[in-house]
Amino acid sequence: MKKKIMFVAGARPNFVKIAPLLREFAKRRDVFKTSLVHTGQHYDFDMSGVFFEGLQIPDPDIHLNVGSHSHAVQTARIMIAFEKVVMKNKPDLVVVVGDVNSTAACALVASKLGVKVAHVEAGLRSFDRTMPEEINRVVTDSISDYLFVSEKSGIRNLKREGVASEKIHFVGNVMIDSLIWAGPLVGRSTILDRLKLTEKRYGIVTLHRPANVDSNGSLIEIYDILRMVSEKIELIYPLHPRSRTMLKKHGLIEKLTALTNLCLIDPLGYLDFIRLMKDSRFVLTDSGGIQEETTALGIPCLTMRENTERPITVTQGTNNLVGKDKGKIYRGVANILRGHYKQGSVPDFWDGKASQRIASMIRGQLADRPGP
Ligand code: UD1
Prior knowledge:
Elements lengths: L2 E7 L2 H15 L5 E7 L6 H10 L7 E2 L7 H19 L3 E5 L3 H12 L3 E7 L9 H12 L2 E4 L2 H9 L7 E3 L3 H13 L4 H4 L7 E5 L3 H4 L2 H15 L3 E5 L2 H9 L3 H5 L4 E4 L4 H9 L3 E4 L2 H10 L3 E3 L8 H4 L3 E3 L4 H12 L16 H14 L5
Parallel strand pairs: 1-2, 1-4, 2-3, 4-5, 5-6, 6-7, 8-9, 8-11, 9-10, 11-12, 12-13
Helix pairs in contact: 1-2, 1-7, 1-17, 3-4, 4-5, 7-13
The structure holds uridine-diphosphate-N-acetylglucosamine (UD1).
């Protein structure tokens, strides 16, 4: 009997992680029957559809259409809808990725129904419980059966939390699988022409975390920082819907638009964004995934957070934690523009084969187990 593997994706970073997994599992159709559930946490074309296109992800088999709500309502609605799906389809394994609300909600549902759960990108910890993602990580890891770890800090964190070693598998980074897969395609992106940019003559800004964009005080600090940096180099800022809403609410969209060297644009699709990042001088971000992608691409990254759940990007990669410290950011940018920044190296197993390792592991683990 083929083993039924149900993959869950809900928000933008999930799509990037799920794409290479689906491709690898499709190669093993003789043993696996796979399905994809889209929770609908992200629903705009810009936040979802364009990623399915760019990453060539097959259409979801099931769409839960939950949409945007408070954390409790969103998580609860995903759980209610996903419970029905799991009861009806009886998968042998549910695979969740990353740290968004969809991840924790679906892991909880599956584990309570006695269905095995695999968490891809397990063990990352920022040790900052004010981040919703940290709560999602801790909850998901504590109830998962297979914990697939992307960097070695994840092994230490899980062991410290008492997770049995047999459950922990260091496989590398599926996000980098997508990056490497996309390599030959990104050259075809016309984004530089469309934005009239020259390679290495611009920086990218992506900021959307609640801690950065949800308060007036923080947005004003960010405005000051972007004004200061844009005096040195042109900046491109693809706006996440959360950031756009907050900037509008606090009357800052007009002020940012008025900065001559800053260009606010809509969110970009995967291939366009990777192309933009690959040819940029540096990235100023609060994203998790971008800290990893810049490390893999060797692009300097200034992370506007006080902590990171991805420490290898700092110890081995090109990442620097700068918070909202204007001095650090000013010096960081000035150094990058003078060509002084750490070169970094690519972490172990960030080699495009993480999904392959995961599929082989799961095949080995599930092969001998009787169906439900
Ligand atoms: C979520 C993840 C975050 C991830 C980010 C990537 C959680 C807790 N957070 O944050 O880890 O880095 O996705 O984008 O799961 N909205 C739209 N259209 C959409 C989706 C959202 O307009 O397609 C707007 C809505 O107003 C919504 C807001 O963005 O209220 C926030 O969306 P939500 O999914 O709740 O959180 P993100 O900030 O996107």
